[in-house]
Amino acid sequence: MLRILSSLGFVCLTLATVALSEETSRRPASLRPDNAQGGEVTDRQPHTAPQIIRIAQKTRGKKKMEKDKSAEPDDATPTPPAGNKPASAETEGLKFSRDIAPILVGNCIGCHNEKAMAKNGKLDLTTFEKIQKGGAGGAGFVAGMPEESHLYLRLTGDETPRMPRGANRQLSEATIEKVGAWLKAGAVFDGKDPKALLTSYASTPEQLRTAELEKLSVADRDKLVETKGIERWKKGNSKATPQVTPGKNFMLFGVLPKGRVTSTLKVADTQYPKIVGLIAPSGSSEPLEKIGLYVFNERSEFVEFVRSNENREVDKLEQGTASLNVPEPYVAVIDPLGGHDEPAGPARRPSRSKKKSRDDSTEAERTLGGLITDYVAAGVVRRESEKAPVWLSLGLGSFFGSRVDPRSPSTQHLRRAAYQQFDQGWTNRANDALGGEGKPESVRAIGFGIIEALAMEPQTQASFPLFVKGLIENPGKLDDVIKDSLGADRAQFLAGTGEFVATHYGRSR
């Protein structure tokens, strides 16, 4: 069974920053380890002198290519130009446009582009011509000689720092050796224009993965999700073996009463098309592969899951997480009831006389379906735009969650928190949140207030979908989106949403 492009993450590829003289940079032999000088490379460059990279004398790349050493040109043999050397039998069919460019598109050009090249080794990898030119360290590769090509050596770690950065972001050996094989075969360019952007002809990792998934049966796709789900679950150090229950759009992993499993999947499957319909109207209302739902009964298990699978720490108020832009996408949450049955009869609201500390979270005072809906919506926003404003993802998540739990203590708490922000000066507080500043709980409350105001007020209901679509497509142009979708300026936008919060949320205090 295929595991498609598991090695391709959304990561960047950085090549060497090497100080070479003008004379040596013109000779292919100067790229060899024996001619490199200087000390060890670190991320901190001294201000007094340029940093020089020392390449390991015995690189792994050389070891891997040693068996074919007799076939390599010696120092006196001119290096064949890229694009002119035919592929060998062992790499026949390997193409730059189909096999190499997608790797660079998926992992490199996010950092190595014209705008960001100044801080990334003066390296732009957006076209074949610029890849060949290289950056501050000289040419990016030597055709026919992967063991002397910065492009390959940075991937293997024979030049430091290894790329992509981060222990959990390295490409697989198979992917790295695919690049090495292409270089060894002559670095042939099979496109029409080496100056054309890679994105104009190279499929993205998502497109390639989609094409492969479409070849599989539904049962095979579900098996991929189940296998990966069990693997991720075990990383949470949970002693319990999860029950695996598939739904229409989701596959739930957890240890819950059967009735709650059924009701939770029903809520998730009902809400998902509504979420996609607003946030990603051009997308399918059914995911190509089911989304894994991991429900943990203990917070410690959830915390360990996030640490192991996302390599980060969990905020003290965080009750869930979502990663929908990865192979086998998932949402993970802490069950508000700790794996128990729903209480008999209507839930009793907490007494207002009972004091709560600032650290107490009312996030747990909601249904599991509402909690999952919240994080699914926030995850869809980030899937559509990684640069989407935090207030938008939190606000839309809370809004959809409140549709499932309209009278829950957590929804009422959100409204009281939004009113508190109004009481402290809505214009300033909201502007801070819109600019990415403020505590997460404050940003969430403000985002919720803005989203609910736009969705519920008669004069903005029709324009609300246009506002969401515009902001996802142009996350850095809020004022333009407000004008184009709502016909207002920011001052009017803040005055209108603030009035809604004051009028509707004041009674929730």
UniProtKB/TrEMBL annotation:
Region (Disordered): 23-91, 333-365
Superkingdom field: Bacteria
Keyword annotations of the record: Signal
Domain Cytochrome C Planctomycete-type, residue spans: 108-164
Pfam families named in the record: PSCyt1
UniProt GO molecular function: electron transfer activity; heme binding
Signal peptide interval: 1-21
InterPro entries named among the record's database cross-references: Cyt_c-like_dom_sf (IPR036909), Cyt_c_Planctomycete-type (IPR011429)
The UniProt record lists the keyword Signal: yes
Coiled coil: none
Annotated protein name in UniProt: Planctomycete cytochrome C
Source organism: Singulisphaera acidiphila (strain ATCC BAA-1392 / DSM 18658 / VKM B-2454 / MOB10)
